[in-house]
Design brief:
The protein is α/β, with parallel strands linked by helices and about 280 residues long. Helix content is about 45%, strand content about 20%. It has an eight-stranded mixed beta sheet with strand order 1-2-4-3-5-6-7-8, with helices on both faces. The model has no long low-confidence stretch (mean pLDDT about 95).
């Protein structure tokens, strides 16, 4: 695996990749995530013939952090993604998007479906994120504005498990305490402006389900069986997208690549091996 920085659309993106010259595959992390959500699997994907690339989206990890909330939106992330694919010299590529990254991936698929050889929608939704209390969201925004991401993370610790803290996640944290610390570190490292802009947008975004029904790209909808925040929307997407495959990962939550790695890897690679580029 190699790491480098690429400048696209005026922002610096931290990129990790393996398998240069192989079939193009881009993996996109979610809200307050990082490229390290997928770096562990880049070399194994390269050994299967893929040029596997992941990156820190703007406002995350080692990538640029614009100072204004207006510099962050799902559309902006979509345009960054396409500019990165251009910088990599990719006309067509397979795309995996996780959570918020899956929402960005849907926007790419709806805008330029001809550029995708395959699409993996992982633990994501087609419309507003469900189960978010508006009062709690406003409280979170106030905390972030007053004390940054550290204030938010401290409040989340005090509040206890969230809907994304599934039994699978809690089991993994108990087995590997460093995983829990790393998960918190990613949130602490996220841009407050990004958090404020995207937390608001994700709960108010338009529903894309009807538009997704027009896709003619090979699609895998991949979701942990315990990810109640996105399980119903995942099933709905698989039902309306022509030819889409649904894979529900046993013993997986919102991050099944860590919580149920073998099952997740089997579902992903079985699909990818059938893709013709």
């Amino acid at each position: 695996m190699l790491t480098r920085h690429l400048t696209v659309r005026g922002v610096d993106l931290a990129v990790a990749e393996a398998g240069g010259g192989g079939r193009p595959l881009l993996l996109v992390h979610g809200f307050a995530g990082a490229k390290e959500d997928f770096t562990e699997w880049l070399d194994p994907l390269a050994s299967r013939g893929w040029h596997a690339v992941t990156y820190d989206q703007r406002g995350h990890g080692q990538s640029s952090r614009p100072a204004a909330e207006a510099a962050f939106s799902l559309d902006i992330f979509r345009d960054d993604l396409l500019a990165l694919a251009d910088a990599l010299g990719w006309d067509r590529f397979a795309l995996l998007g996780h959570s918020m990254g899956g929402m960005v991936a849907q926007l790419v698929a709806l805008l330029v479906p001809e550029r995708l050889s395959a699409l993996v929608l992982m633990d994501t939704g087609h419309g507003p994120v469900e189960g978010i209390d508006s009062a709690m969201l406003e409280l979170g925004a106030t905390l972030v504005r007053q004390g940054g991401m550290a204030a938010l993370v401290e409040a989340q610790r005090a509040a206890g498990p969230s809907p994304l803290d599934t039994p699978a996640h809690l089991r993994l944290v108990a087995q590997r305490p460093e995983y829990g610390r790393w998960s918190e570190a990613k949130a602490l490292d996220a841009s407050p402006q990004m958090w404020l802009a995207l937390s608001r947008e994700m709960v108010g975004q338009p529903d894309r389900l009807d538009a997704l029904a027009a896709l003619r790209v090979p699609v895998l909808v991949l979701v942990g069986e315990q990810d109640q925040a996105f399980l119903a929307q995942s099933r709905a997407m698989a039902a309306v997208i022509p030819g889409a495959r649904l894979a529900v990962v046993a013993d997986g939550g919102h991050a099944p690549q860590f919580e149920s790695s073998d099952e997740w890897w089997r579902a992903l690679t079985t699909f990818l091996e059938e893709v013709k580029t």
